[in-house]
Amino acid sequence: MITKALFGAWDYVVLVIVLLISSGIGVYYRFTGGKQKTMREYLLADKNMSIAPVAFSLMASFMSAITLLGVSSENYSYGFQFIVINISYGIFTPVAAYLYLPVFFKLQATSAYEYLERRFGKIARLAASLCYTLQMTLYMGIVLYAPALALEALTGITKVSAILSVGIVCTFYSTIGGMKAVLMTDVFQSLLMFAAVFSIIICAWVDKGSLSEIWRIAAEGNRTDLWNFDPDPTVRHSWFTLIIGGGITFLSLYAVNQTQVQRYLTIKDLKRAQKACWWNWPILTALSLSTSFSGLAIYSKYYNCDPKDSKYINSADQLMPYYVVDTMGHIPGLSGLFVAGIFSASLSTVSAALNSLAAITIEDYIKPLYKHVLKKPLSEKRAGMQTKFISLIYGVVCIAVAFLAQMLGGVLQAALTIFGVVGGPLLGLFSLGMFTTIANEEGSVTGLAAGVAFALWMAFGDKPPLKMLPTSTEGCLNYKNTTSSISAAPILGKADSEYFWLYRVSYLYNGVFGLLVTIVIGLLASYIVHRFVRENPKTYDPNLFIPPLANKMKREQNASANLEAFAHISTSSDNLRNGLKTERSYF
User: Three-class SS of residue 472?
Assistant: First the structure.
């Protein structure tokens, strides 16, 4: 095993080339087409994108370096059970494509939260926008922190230098190139992500002689159990937590999240956008499964000499980059290609977030300020300039947040926790609007506040320590262990059963509980307002609801209109008959 990082000149050459290509795509789109001068081109790519780049971008927007580092570490430390979450993606893809997506396509608004203003009011829109801004700002910090871990393990470059290099490059090309640059770099960067993961699997395959040998070693280490069907919500990963909790997380990202909705709207029609949503699933699953297996591949190398226990690395999230430099560091440029994949994963995600945050800042904050306070419209030229400046500001903010991300624990669980805490309640707010007619603004905003508060309480309470699967250091030549060569996460302090039950619930259920609390409290509060304060409007725009409910409302409205027309005709006929009678009596 290596005792120091190996990163040669060719590795730096490969890494620099990748960063230059990503930046070059931004420069290219800055000086072609409409040169990103209009809001439509900068934020929605002129609505003329094809299915393939959007499908890749949908995957790359949230499957970042967190996926490459966090999922491999998850499978190394806790086992292969996590792959069950891919089933939830398939189950909930049609829900996103055929229930939520048609509503946004009918709306055709740059900000997804404009829907909330039309359905409820300005307060609901502002509350949701602020929640999204908080969610994505925190997430961007984790995404920048992940490649910093990789570079520190491989190159000895400090986290500070790594965070700044990724953040500056990403902010540069997403600021000048707009949505087209973001989408096209996502395709390029997605391919690099796959290359990074498969390089690990192939290397382990060659080292062990077969994939079955990798599986055998993992099975001996109790890392291949896939059949945990325990319905207990305090079980960290089971089929129930992964399918239910993972499905709600998926919906919160791919059904109502501004970042993804904005990508859907770069396609000119609904059917093609739905196809992009469907194609995202196999691409997403392929990356997730291969990254999960790479965790077992890494375990086949270190099953008897764990790098973290033997003090070669500082965090389990550094396992993948450490494996690369340990096994492939002697091949010129290969470590550089892997780090380029890590960089690319973060670049694609942060650039997506920057563009989307700029969109809602302009649409939800700046334009209402001009309209209601300054009493004048925001010109197209000024809006374009301000959008680019706002992207730049958010880039600086996410770099700052990245320095705080190391306090959030493992990158995968931290990311999914953030998505659950904010994403679940936001999904609940949109669902109240799209699935029900009873929900009103007062009730829905109350539900959102209650859902976020409850999810935060769950996520950041006093939780029992995680129990990793046993690891060994008996194969380490230079490691001295005075106690035992087999180790696992020590159990310190009180037993798990002594912790408050809600704090023991799986982190994947944060979004589920946030969703349920938002819907229940939202409906209850809406009923109280409806019953004791004021009645809801008796007519709604059917386009604000999911297609089945919208079609039902349209049929009812048409029937009502036909009855009114029939009544009008009947009244006219009666009046005509009465007039004729009067005329005959006159003669």
Answer: strand
C-alpha to C-alpha distance for 62 and 255, rounded to whole angstroms: 13
Confidence of residue 465 (pLDDT cuts 50, 70, 90): confident
Alpha-carbon torsion (377, 261, 397, 454), positive or negative: positive
* Euclidean distance between CA atoms 275 and 262, whole angstroms: 15
Of 279-283, 345-349, 458-462, minimum mean pLDDT range: 345-349
Question: Which of these, 392, 391, 399, 397, lies nearest to 359 by C-alpha position?
Answer: 391
- Listed in sequence order, the DSSP H helices in 65-158 are 65, 72-78, 85-95, 101-107, 114-119, 122-155
**Helix, strand and coil in the chain, % to nearest 5:** 75, 0, 25
Class at the top of the CATH hierarchy for domain 26-413? mainly alpha
Q: CB–CB of 523/436 below 8 Å? A: yes
pTM over 0.70: yes
Cα→Cα distances 174→30, 186, 298, 354, 521, Å: 10, 11, 34, 7, 39
Tokens of 106: 């009918």
Helices then strands, counting H and E runs in the chain, come out as 25, 2
Task: Answer whether 36's CB lies under 8 Å from 183's CB.
Answer: no
Q: What residue spans of 120-256 are helical by DSSP H?
A: 122-155, 159-208, 211-220, 239-240, 246-254
- Tokens linked to 345: 């994963």
The closest of 327, 527, 545 to 440, measured between CA atoms, is 527
- pLDDT tier, 425 (very low <50, low <70, confident <90, very high otherwise): very high
Quick one: 127 exposed, middle or buried, by C-beta within 10 A (0-12, 13-18, 19+)? buried
Q: How many whole angstroms separate alpha carbon 334 and alpha carbon 186?
A: 21
Contact call for residues 333 and 4 (beta carbons, < 8 A) = no
Residue 352 to residue 392: CA distance in whole angstroms: 13
| Residue 582: alpha-carbon gap to chain centroid | 74
CA distance 49 to 267: 5
**Residue carrying structure tokens 């706002």:** 390
Question: Is the distance from CB of 251 to CB of 96 less than 8 angstroms?
Answer: yes
**Distance, C-alpha 286 to centroid of its chain:** 17
Of residues 261 and 484, more confidence is placed in 261
**Which distant-in-sequence residues (6+ apart) come within 8 Å of 556 by Cβ?**
none
Nearest by Cα to 256 from 350, 179, 364, 356:
356
Give Cβ neighbours of residue 316 (< 8 Å, ≥ 6 apart): 73, 76, 77, 308, 410, 468
Q: Write the CB contacts of 439 (distance below 8 Å, at least 6 apart in sequence).
A: 120, 432, 433, 522, 523, 526
Count of alpha carbons within 13 angstroms of residue 369, beta-carbon side: 8
Query: Which tops the pLDDT comparison, 9 or 574?
Result: 9
Highest mean pLDDT among 235-249, 352-366, 478-492: 235-249
Q: For residue 441, what pLDDT band results from cuts at 50, 70 and 90?
A: very high
Listed residue (485, 441, 487) closest to 468, CA to CA: 487
Q: Which two tokens stand for residue 500?
A: 């408050």
Residues 6+ apart with CB under 8 A from 2: 312, 325, 326, 329
